[in-house]
Amino acid sequence: MSATPTANGSSVLSVEHLSVLAKERYLLHDVSLEFPRQSLTAVVGPSGCGKTTFVRTLNRMVEMTRGLHVEGVVNYLGQNIYDPGVNPVLVRRRIGMVFQRPTVFPMSVFENAAFGLRLVHEDEDAIDKAVTEALQRAGLWDEVKGELNRSALGLSGGQQQRLCIARALAVRPRVLLLDEPTSALDPMATQRVEATLRRLKEEIVLVLVTHNVGQAARISERVAFLHSGNLIEVGPTADILERPRDPKTQEFITGRFQ
Amino acid sequence: MATVLPEGGLAPEDVLFDRSARTRWRLGFDRYAGYLLPLLFLVAIIPIIDLVYYVGSQALPTLTYAVLTSFNYRVVDALGVPIVSTAEVMALATLFAVLLGVFGGVATAEFLSDSAAGWVRVSANMLAGTPSVVLGYFGYFTFCLYFGWGLAFIAGVLTLAFFMTPYIFRITDLAFSSIPRHIREAAYGSGTRPYQYILKVGTPIAFPQVLNGVFLAVAIGVGETAPIVLTTTGSKILPQTLFSPVTFLTALIWEDFSYPAGSPAIALAFQAAFILLVVVVGLNVLVRVISARYRKRLEGLYQ
Predict the structure, then answer these.
(1) pLDDT of chain B along its 303 residues, tens only?
(2) Closest-CA residue in chain A for B19?
(3) Least CB–CB distance from A77: residue in B2, B14, B18
(4) Kind and range of the H or E element at A78?
(5) Which among A206, A115, A99, A199 is positioned nearest to A157, based on CA atoms?
(6) Residue ranges per domain, chain B?
(7) How many pairs of residues across A and B have Cβ atoms under 8 Å apart?
(8) Torsion of CA B68, B71, B76, B77, to 10 degrees
(9) Most exposed residue of A93, B142, B247, B249, measured as fewest CB within 10 angstroms of its CB?
(10) β-strand A95-98 against A11-22: which pairing, if any?
């Protein structure tokens, strides 16, 4: 990936005074946050704190839910993705997403990985190359290279989730949003996905929603703690997890509320 | 807050702004489609509005409380007998159809093997697709002639029940089959017997849908003419026995509308038609209200 100058220095994605309202109620209130290059930021917090809503605002997936109103700015390389001239489809190609449960489509492994590329009409050779590369980056290549034409529904849950990561990576996004990607997986599969993410954060920006503090400790270098729609604190993982400044963070980390 | 787009600094694939003619056309279409759709909706409901208006304008000037409630068969302009007769026919037919449809639907969804269930569903679909006049002849030949009941109240009831059954059957079958697998397994996993599962877990989940199906079947059945006019004959009084003649509202419309224009029979036909419209619209509104109420209660079940 070529190094490209950006409008405001080192961060690819930044959020300024972001709020999400459902009618009169704030699901997310005045959140400001930066996502630097080559970083994995873990967004943690108790259930219902707005973690999922938050990542869904980062590529306008939030608009798929009716009745939500977004205020504030999400900046991608100096462009506000909520600007009226912005095409949300282009946003989602640059800011990919992986969901809680594996969401493979009922097609072959190859076609699943090529899904996003087929939408932009690339030629077969380019698709072939990109699929191989994406599967390698997702850490799935060695397991599926002999059976690319088999149905993806036959893969295990962990393999399916990495295939979803490969599908997102195939269109070469700069940012990948992961909404609790391992919550439906067993420990072994979780480990594999975490290894994949650890490698990926050298290349692109990762935003990982997780309710698992241990996972945040293992693979993130920054933690943002959300509580009832407010960003309580954000900082280097070690600082937040070992010396939280806010009592709410302290309580969450020590497991006093879930 | 407007963002300044840094021109020239971005790789082409990073540009999110899209000012191509195609996208502008799409966005424009998107905007106007929003206005177009309500307009198309209006076009679609104009025939209905026209129908209600026309029937209403013909029926309402002469429709009085006395007409609705008079059972005096010597008075031509009285709808008391047909209304109550229709209610009686519908009540019995719905009872039969619910028994057949609900039990059949539950059995198909819960107990039959996949292949047997498949055959039952195909049969039900065929029955639902059978023109009502064909079903009317089936009832005429079976009940009136073969069983020798003549043109009788009970022949009309049973024929109408057969007409309504597939609607109730299909919706019951669907309601029970679409209960999430994990709910079924959780119920059986805690040691329920099949009938306990159906009564305690399945029914609360499926009930609103089944109720909707029943109301819809009633709304469809009350507007049917052929199964009734082929198996019964009109009467000026309420049916006295199961084998009496009976006047159904649609049958009354069918017969009275053949009188010459301006005759009191035509006015009566319009009044009957107006009442039918009100009943059918009322049933449909009721269905909407019930499903909206129950949908709220079952929110979260399908997560």
Answers:
(1) 344 445 557 888 888 888 888 888 887 888 888 888 889 999 999 998 999 999 999 888 888 887 787 777 666 678 888 999 999 999 999 999 999 999 999 999 999 999 999 999 999 999 999 999 999 999 999 999 999 998 999 999 999 999 999 999 999 999 999 998 888 888 888 888 899 999 989 998 898 899 999 999 999 999 999 999 999 988 888 888 889 989 899 999 998 888 888 888 888 889 999 999 999 999 999 988 888 888 777 776 765
(2) A85
(3) B14
(4) none
(5) A99
(6) 86-297
(7) 61
(8) -10
(9) B142
(10) unpaired
DSSP B30-94: HHHHHHHHHHHHHHHHHHHHHHHHHHHHHHGGG--HHHHH---TT-SS--HHHHHHHHHHHHHHH
Query: Is the interface score ipTM higher than 0.85?
Result: no
Strands A222-227 and A40-44: parallel
Q: Is B99 on the interface with A (CB under 8 A)?
A: no
Considering only CB atoms, A76 lies closest to which of B1, B4, B16, namely B16
> Cα distance from A160 to chain B (closest Cα, Å)?
20
Nearest to B16 among A5, A73, A86 (CB): A86
> Is A11-253 in CATH node 3.40.50.300?
yes
Domain boundaries, chain A: 11-253
Structure tokens at A23: 């009618």
How far is the C-alpha of A95 from the C-alpha of B13, rounded, in Å? 12
CATH of B86-297, one of 2.40.50.630, 3.40.50.170, 1.20.1440.60, 1.10.3720.10: 1.10.3720.10
| pTM greater than 0.80 (yes/no) | no
